[in-house]
Amino acid sequence: MRGRDYSGQVLTECICEFGGGVVLLFLAISGKYLAYVSPRICPFLIVGAAILFCMGIFSIPQIKHFQHHIHMAHCLLLVIPILLLVLPHSTAAQTATAPSAGLATAVAKSAPSSAAPLEEKTKLSGLDSAHKRITVKNEEFYSWISELTGNLDKYTGYTVVMTGYVYKDPQFVSSGEFVPARLLMTCCTADLSPIGLLCKYAKAASLPEKSWVTVEGTLIKGSFQGSPDPQLQVTKVTKAQPVNDYVYPY
Fold this sequence. Notes:
alpha/beta; CATH 2.40.50.140; 2 domains; 5-stranded mixed barrel; 6 helices; 29% helix; 22% strand; elongated
């Protein structure tokens, strides 16, 4: 005599499918997926959630079909990723420290079209040509780094104001220097690398590592690993509130 009139295997599969769909949909709607991947992945999360919901719906009628032999191992393919997404853990943002190809120079190499004049691209805000001043908004951090790198001669001598976290890796930054950095993400946290403008500042040693600051300084033409590099001669540093430190090359 059977002890139950349902399939424990199919029931478990349904729970995993609906659970996985809920997690993916929650990550997409809440924006929490941005801790792992770039905004371009959001449509794939929504499609993935829809597929899992459909799989769960089509599996419901099969729950009533009793099975003598139950196989659960394949359910781990959904359970393990769900647990990895739900359980608290440190993100790569806390460990990414080394720029992949330099500081501001990394942007120029990843965006070959950056040398185009600003007027030929999407208009960036914060440019005051009359007073030779650039105020970099958080959402335009990458775009302005790209613009300054590609048109360094044009903007040399401008006053630049920008916000970032203090980056002072001795492998890339010398004494009396720091970078108000942000983390560049192309696809996911696995490719995170800091970018920003190298700043010349006599009191750089007094700035705590990873503290958030707003920097004001004059743009100068420096050199980083043999390539022309936009740098700042700092005139003012103030404390700032942390912001989303991920920036994207698009």
